[in-house]
Amino acid sequence: MSVDSSLVEEIRSASRTMVRELGFMKSTLAGTRYSPSAVHALLEIENQGAMPAAQLVQALGLEKSSVSRMVGKLIEAGEIEEAASSEDGRSKNLFLTELGKRTVADIHVHGQQQVITAMNLLDPTQQRVVAQGLGAYASALQLRHERPQEVAASPVEIITGYQPGLIGRIAEMHADFYSRHWHFGQFFESKVAAGAAEFTGRLDHPANQIWAAVQNGRIVGSVAIDGQDLGNNEAHLRWFILDDTCRGTGVGRQLLAQAMAFCDEAGFSATQLWTFKGLDAARRLYESFGFVLALEEQGTQWGSSVTEQQFTRPAMQNPPL
Description:
β4 (about 210-215) and β5 form a beta hairpin. The strands form two sheets. Strands 3-4-5-6-7-9-8 form a seven-stranded mixed sheet, with helices on both faces. A two-stranded antiparallel ribbon has the order 1-2. The protein has eleven helices and nine strands. It has helices at about 5-20, 35-50, 55-60, 65-75, 100-120, 125-145, 150-155, 165-180, 185-200, 250-265, 280-290; strands at about 80-85, 90-95, 155-160, 210-215, 220-225, 235-240, 270-275, 290-300, 305-315. The protein has three domains: about 5-120, Winged helix-like DNA-binding domain superfamily/Winged helix DNA-binding domain (Arc Repressor Mutant, subunit A, Orthogonal Bundle); about 120-155; about 155-315, 3-Layer(aba) Sandwich (Aminopeptidase), CATH 3.40.630. The protein is of the alpha+beta class. It is elongated and about 80 Å long. The longest helix is centred in the middle third of the chain and has 23 residues, at about 125-145.
C-alpha cells in the first residue's frame, strides 16, 4: 500500500513541530532536571507499578547499557529504587519512591497544561479530530512492530450495497477530512449524515447504488450513485470519500470504476457531481473518468463559503482501469 506523498510530508512536518514545541530538543523535559528518556522511564515505571530493567529496555527501545546508566542515576537521585520481585525473589523490579511519585505527578501536571493550552486554541470539532488522529497514528506506529506482515498485506475489498455502520462512517470520514482541511463544522456533518440516511432508504430502486471499500472489516471509503434526485435520466455521484489510510493507494479509482460502470450499464444520459475548488487530487481523478467542469460559482451549500464546482460526465465513457 502506498501513501500520498503530500500526506507523508505533512505528518513529518507536524511531528518535527511537536518535538520542538513539547521540548524534546532540550536536554531536560517536562519541567524536570531529567532527560526525555529518563522522564519516559519514570512514566513507564508508574504505569506498570513495578517492572524489571529488561522490560524497561524493551519499552524505551534503547540500548541495555544506556538504560542501565540512566536507572543508576535515577536510583542515585532517589526517584526509583530496586527491590526483589514478590513473585520471584531472584529477580529485581524497579519501583517509584515517594520522591519519584511526586516527580511523576509534577510531570503529569506539566504535560496536561501543555495539551490544554494548545487545545484551547481549537474548536471542539478540531479537538476531537486531533485526539482521534493522534491515537490512530500512534496505534499504526506500534503495528509496524507488532504485525508488520499483516499491515503490509491488508487487502481492500469493494462491497456493493448497504453495510452495517456505513451511514455513520460516511459522515465520520467526511467530517474528519473536511474539518481538518477546510474547517467545515456541525452543519456539514449533519447534512452528510442526513443525506446518506435518506438515500440508503431508497437503495431498493434499481437506479440507486452504493459501494464501500472495506479493509480488515473497517469501512475506509465510499461512493454512491443516486439515479433519482436529479431527474432527466441523469445520475448524481455522491459521498465519494476515502479514509486517510487509503489515499494514494488506488482505492478511489476502484470505487469510481464501479460507480461509472453502473452508470453506463444503467444507460444514464449523464452523470453529475458537485464539489468545490481546491480538491485538486480528486479533480484529476474525476477528469480521468471523463468528467468535465461545467459550472463554477461561489456558494454555501456545505455551510461555508467556497467556490462550488459542477462536473459533468456524458454517457458511455470508457474509464481507464
